[in-house]
Amino acid sequence: MDPLTLGMLAILAVLIFFMFRNGQKRKRDQEALQSKVAPGAEVMTNFGLFGTILTMDEDDNKVALEVAPGTVLTVHRQTIARVIDDVDAAPVDDHGIVDESTSSTDPLVASEPVIDVRTDAEKQADAEKKSDN
Asked: Spans of biased composition, class Basic and acidic residues (predicted)?
């Protein structure tokens, strides 16, 4: 066998190894998520809906999700993307701005845009406060 063929086979073997490894990791993550999904848990769906699980139907894979007091939606169990822990919540200041210095490094949280709705005077006052400290 020539070196080029050996190199291509080695690269193919490495790619296959990483494919299986990623598949196993994804399966472990999904099992960990499903073990946390239980009535009373606060969750986020794949489409960004937050709510609390009221009931779960294992046979039909349906979850009753309360999104507001008295508003219950039925969603498929696989749409649950993650369980919201108290640690996941990013601290927010008086103006509703996320404090990025203490926020989670979770890609779902870090990639969300933060819109600053303060007036220019409020922004300038905050900047002066920070410079005084």
From this structure: 115-133
Per-residue pLDDT tens for 84-98?
875 444 555 555 555
- Pairing state of beta strands 42-45 and 50-57? antiparallel
Give the side-chain half-sphere CA count within 13 A for 16: 6
Which CATH number is 63's domain given? 2.30.30.100
Residues paired with residue 110 on neighbouring β-strands, in sequence order: none
For residues 48 and 76, membership in a common domain is answered with: yes
Contact 67, 25 (CB under 8 A): no
* Strands laid side by side in the 71-76 sheet: 71-76, 62-68, 50-57, 42-45, 80-83
pTM score: 0.47
